[in-house]
Design a protein that fits this description.
It is a single chain. It is built from 4 helices and 13 strands. The chain has about 240 residues and is α+β, with helices and mostly antiparallel strands. It has one domain (about 5-230). The strands form 2 sheets. Strands 1, 2, 5, 6, 8, 9, 10, 11, 12 and 13 form a 10-stranded mixed beta sheet that branches. It starts with a strand and ends in a 5-residue tail after the last helix. The relative contact order is 0.19.
Length: about 240
């Protein structure tokens, strides 16, 4: 099956979920950095990713990290994708287009020893930053707010950065899926707000919608919905 996408986060999700290497649309702006996404561990079908199961979550209070607790519910994996995807001009079986997106920024710190391996933290007041510790010497920061990102990088790592140091990420929040076999189209809207929540929800919704050509599944506003249960502290 040939699947075409216009966003490399979508490419990573399709690759991880179905083990299918998607092709990139010809009008895509290719990124020159590794893609990193949050993913439901039980839906990971590819073994070509550097996968880190996140075991605990915590809260940032001023300059301290605390309240580190086990993650319950659906297990989260943090995927680091160094796979390359080619731009082709074929007629795909499925074409996924981004109709709206949200901008996030990422910053990586390496060779810094810490004790928070396989953990993720957020700030309780604003809930607009995710800090991931993939291993014992690496820290990844995510936020849509550049000022907030700079603030916590300074607090946690004592590092002052410039906006040019940040990696800009376009994260899809609305998708259109076109099936060439029956000319059917599905529209999907992502309702989560954080980088963690959006990427996890994309993975779950594409799992439901990509192969199934008949039905469209969207996220729910019900507070008992599994995404909201799992990410209550992060959204």
């Amino acid at each position: 099956m040939n699947i075409e996408v216009d966003n490399e986060i979508l490419a990573s999700v399709i690759d991880a979920r179905f083990g299918i290497k998607p092709q990139l649309s010809s009008n895509i702006e290719k990124a020159n950095f590794k893609q990193t996404i949050f993913f439901p561990e039980d839906k990971l079908k590819s073994n070509t990713f550097n996968s880190v199961p996140l075991d605990t979550y915590g809260i940032i209070n001023k300059s301290k990290l605390f309240t580190r607790e086990p993650i319950t519910g659906e297990q989260i994996s943090y995927l680091i994708n160094d796979n390359g995807y080619t731009v082709k001009d074929n007629n795909p079986d499925i074409k996924i287009q981004t109709t709206d997106y949200k901008i996030f920024y990422r910053f990586e710190i390496n060779e810094t020893q810490h004790k928070y391996c396989s953990s993720i933290f957020t700030n309780l007041k604003f809930k607009k930053i995710n800090i991931v510790f993939p291993n014992s010497s690496t820290i990844h920061f995510f936020s849509e707010n550049i000022s907030l990102l700079k603030k916590y990088i300074k607090k946690i790592a004592n590092k002052k950065i410039q906006e040019s140091d940040l990696i800009k990420i376009k994260v899809p929040t609305s998708l259109s899926i076109y099936y060439s076999k029956n000319n059917n189209t599905k529209e999907i809207t992502i309702k989560n707000k954080s980088y963690l929540g959006i990427s996890f929800e994309i993975a779950n919704l594409l799992s439901l919608n990509t192969i199934d050509t008949k039905n469209t599944y969207n996220s729910s506003n019900n507070n008992n919905y599994y995404i909201n249960i799992l990410f209550f502290l992060f959204l």
